[in-house]
């Protein structure tokens, strides 16, 4: 098969990284994949070929005929069996290009979050109804994401399949987190409102008050970073928190941490939890989205959303007792069910059924 993958832009974000990893696995088993982006970007993604950009204009996305036409030309030249859109504005551009320039390939939407949380008005929902009525299939990252989508767009019933995110087999580098001789708490994620960094600071403050010899490491970047840096100063935690920005080897940080924390308020199925399980690093997270589909009493600690005191208490228990016995079960879960070579075969099976139906 030929598969065209569309991403929002080259950026070090889960949706784009997984698209590249999936595409690499699809290529290994004999399929031909081309990745393009809606917008220009600077990140070096794990994909060997050039990622062609539509060079779209976000301010005129609903009248961007030039970018729609460029996509149609790429499709005419590449002749894919299907087009998969992966977060951001990729759905908008694919649907508008298809409707205007009349290409016929089916559109597959990869749903990696809880879409309903972003629908703030009837107009937004009405517009999204039009987009989703133009697609052929949705592949949701979790059962929670599927449920959320059906609650807002029930006409998609029968078109949604759940295929989780996966991990690459990787050799984990050894990294020494500074300062040495203390406990290390790690958070990996973009600085966006969904990741709830402000709540994380309050949780860390509670932990630090009872365990002064602890350090918080924040890996990632994004629009909320400046605000969080100000909050760190307000909380007088500058000496206890390190900002890293984007890193090329998050696994080495996860592997070296004593605990990974994820107090997100919105999630699909976060790959960083799987990465922590792969590294045998304990995880504490809020029970949102599809988190509970991998994190449970056997594999980690789930906390009721916004219960910051319980979250801090669980972190302290793990750091103080130092006998967390769930990491082996978590590691086995990932190795047996969440590796990308297995996940890619599920995507191929889904693609083949769709292509057969479309013929």
Automatic annotation (TrEMBL):
Family annotation (InterPro entries): Glyco_trans_1 (IPR001296), Glyco_trans_4-like_N (IPR028098)
Domain Glycosyltransferase subfamily 4-like N-terminal: 14-166
Pfam family of the protein (one): Glyco_transf_4
Range of residues in the leader sequence: none
Domain spans labelled Glycosyl transferase family: 171-322
Domain of life: Bacteria
Record protein name field: Glycosyltransferase
């Amino acid at each position: 098969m030929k598969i065209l993958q569309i991403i929002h832009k080259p950026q070090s974000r889960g949706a784009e990284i997984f698209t590249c990893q999936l595409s690499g696995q699809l290529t290994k088993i004999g399929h031909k994949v081309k990745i393009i982006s809606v917008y220009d970007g600077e990140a070096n993604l794990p994909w060997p070929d050039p990622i062609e950009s539509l060079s779209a204009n976000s301010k005129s996305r609903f009248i961007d005929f030039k970018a729609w036409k460029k996509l149609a030309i790429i499709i005419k030249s590449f002749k894919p069996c299907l087009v998969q859109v992966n977060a951001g504005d990729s759905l908008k551009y694919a649907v508008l290009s298809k409707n205007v320039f009349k290409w016929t390939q089916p559109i597959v939407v990869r749903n990696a979050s809880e879409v309903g949380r972003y629908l703030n008005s009837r107009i937004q929902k009405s517009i999204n109804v039009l987009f989703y009525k133009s697609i052929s299939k949705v592949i949701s990252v979790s059962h929670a994401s599927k449920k959320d989508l059906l609650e807002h767009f029930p006409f998609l019933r029968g078109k949604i399949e759940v295929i989780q995110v996966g991990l690459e087999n990787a050799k984990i580098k050894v990294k020494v987190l500074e300062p040495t001789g203390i406990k290390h708490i790690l958070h990996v994620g973009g600085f966006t409102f969904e990741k709830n960094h402000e709540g994380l600071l309050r949780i860390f403050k509670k932990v630090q008050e009872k365990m002064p010899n602890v350090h918080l490491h924040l890996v990632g970047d994004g629009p909320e970073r400046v605000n969080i840096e100000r909050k760190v100063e307000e909380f007088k935690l500058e000496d206890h928190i390190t900002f890293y920005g984007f890193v090329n080897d998050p696994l080495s940080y996860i592997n070296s941490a004593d605990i990974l924390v994820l107090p997100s308020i919105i999630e699909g199925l976060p790959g960083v939890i799987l990465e922590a399980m792969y590294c045998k690093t304990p995880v504490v997270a809020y029970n949102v989205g599809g988190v509970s589909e991998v994190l449970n009493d056997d594999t980690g600690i789930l906390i009721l959303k916004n219960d910051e005191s319980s979250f801090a208490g669980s972190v302290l228990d793990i750091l103080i007792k130092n006998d967390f016995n769930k990491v082996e079960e978590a590691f086995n879960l990932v190795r047996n069910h969440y590796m990308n070579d297995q996940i890619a075969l599920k995507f191929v099976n889904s693609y083949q059924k769709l292509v057969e139906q479309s013929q």
